[in-house]
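Researcher: Here's the sequence for the chain we discussed earlier.
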Amino acid sequence: MNSTPIDKIVAKKYAQAFMDVFPKSFAFSDVKKIEIAQKFLQTHKRTLFFLQLPQFDQERRKSMVADLIDYFSLPHAFAAIILLVVEHGRSYYIPDVLLWITQLYKEHINSIEFSIQCAQNLDEKHVESIKQFLGRLLTKNIIGIPSVDTSLIAGLRLQSSDYLWEYSIRKQIKALQTLK
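Model: Thanks. This is the structure I predict for it:
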């Protein structure tokens, strides 16, 4: 099922409610686990379907959710939001709710995630310099995820959900091609 804009709004409201009720239920070190669970559930919708089956009683659902929480090593407070969404008959919202929880948490700690793409491997010193540059520019804590993109030819591409900065040979070639 594809999420509509309304679905995303409802999922965000569930996430906001979770953050309001359990403001200190997880730490930054849990964000990666939550993102892994979110991606898995986004691509394995059948897992969510089973939570909705009417032949399972509340105790069985709690057990299934506990297994899910343990499998992904999520904080136990997440069982409450997952069970609530399932109880409301909206288990298909769970991946979006998890996504919104991570985004709201990052906003709460004044952080933003950037993909740092370069044509060659960057050492940790260069990644830290880039993070400091972005941090000063945006007055936020920067979470940098470096990767190699040889299609840049030479240069750098920094991208978040809201920002994009690129200085590369590929970009210059594209700009020259549009002049023709």
